[in-house]
Specification:
158 residues; Jelly Rolls; seven-stranded mixed sheet; 7 strands; globular
Length: 158
């Protein structure tokens, strides 16, 4: 009986150890890139090459510990279907513009110039298919606004 309790305790301890969150201390390697185009309401097209964060682990790490984001780069978080997206800036040292994108590719919400290292929730304010992180100031510089269109394969266009 004592042996059975010891085995059960060891099994529970092992399960608890593997359930602990991973401590993230460095940037993830660059993810595969894909083209993305944002068309503004006046018809101007802005082309980007974005890293694709597709897995939960890639999405958890995101752009953490990256010192900067290229002017024509960024990271696209594909949620796989519409859902509320809540982001934060923990361990993110570069300020970002976050664009929350509907399933049809229209921009639902934009949060500009996020605060590095902040634990404040950044909310999509409704279900979205994806979240796009760009270098801070990009949306203002290119006059990108809510309602503009994003073309990328996950929205049915490329």
């Amino acid at each position: 009986m004592r042996r059975r309790h010891l085995l059960l305790a060891l099994t529970c301890l092992s399960a608890t150890a593997t359930a602990q969150p991973t401590l993230i201390t460095q940037p993830q390697p660059e993810l595969p890139r894909e083209p993305l185009v944002i068309t503004t309401r006046d018809g101007k097209e802005h082309r980007f090459s974005v890293e694709m964060a597709l897995t939960p682990t890639q999405q958890e790490v995101g752009l953490m510990f990256r010192p900067s984001v290229p002017a024509d780069g960024g990271m696209l978080f594909d949620w796989g279907g519409p859902r509320t997206s809540i982001m934060w800036m923990k361990n993110t040292i570069a300020s970002l513009d976050m664009l929350f994108i509907n399933e049809d590719g229209t921009i639902r919400t934009i949060v500009e110039r996020t605060v590095p290292q902040s634990l404040a929730a950044i909310d999509s304010r409704g279900p979205v298919r994806a979240t796009l992180e760009l270098a801070a100031g990009t949306t203002a510089r290119l006059d990108i606004r809510v309602g503009d269109r994003v073309r990328q394969r996950i929205f049915g266009g490329g």
